[in-house]
Amino acid sequence: KERTLAIIKPDGVQGYYTDEIKEAILEWGFEIVQESKFQLDSERASLFYAEHSGKSFFQSLISYMTSGPALAMVLEKPNAISEWRALIGPTDASKAKISHPRSIRAMCGMDLERNCVHGSDSPQSATREILFFFGDVMLT
Ligand code: ATP
């Protein structure tokens, strides 16, 4: 089995999508190993998205991610990283509504930025991101 880091972003929490998203997670056969609701400040949000620090959308992304509480979860199942990415759909939620209408981003996202959920994109980022929110006790 593999673990990945999922986040229900502030727009997902504020839009009351948490229960619907968790239902989809369980229906898809993931175990929610750990979860924690938190409010990111801009320092921690910038650290989490450090790879995007030079991009034009960076400041907007940081204010979006600090706009309210979010819910981080450690999800587990075989191929959890790619399975969760498949379930959430493409980054641009407005496109997801057309190309992947049953995806989570189609359900609760708005556009390229406000896409309501996050998923680790590789084993390396899953390790880094699980450590970031939960520490090394959650790595295995
Ligand atoms: P995530 O890492 O959140 O799962 P992703 O891997 O699909 O999303 P990334 O390219 O890593 O997308 O971008 C991280 C986040 O930054 C996106 O989820 C989105 O909220 C925002 N974002 C990405 N590209 C843009 C853009 N061109 N304009 C505005 N926001 C963007």
From TrEMBL:
The keyword Transmembrane helix applies. Keywords: ATP-binding, Cytoplasm, Kinase, Magnesium, Membrane, Metal-binding, Nucleotide metabolism, Nucleotide-binding, Signal, Transferase, Transmembrane, Transmembrane helix. It catalyses: a 2'-deoxyribonucleoside 5'-diphosphate + ATP = a 2'-deoxyribonucleoside 5'-triphosphate + ADP; a ribonucleoside 5'-diphosphate + ATP = a ribonucleoside 5'-triphosphate + ADP. ATP binds at residues 9, 57, 85, 91, 105, 115. Residues 1-140 form the Nucleoside diphosphate kinase-like domain. GO terms for biological process: CTP biosynthetic process; GTP biosynthetic process; UTP biosynthetic process. The keyword Transferase applies. GO terms for molecular function: ATP binding; metal ion binding; nucleoside diphosphate kinase activity. The active site is at residue 118. Its EC number is 2.7.4.6. Belongs to the NDK family. This is Nucleoside diphosphate kinase. The chain holds residues 26 to 165 of 185 of the full protein.
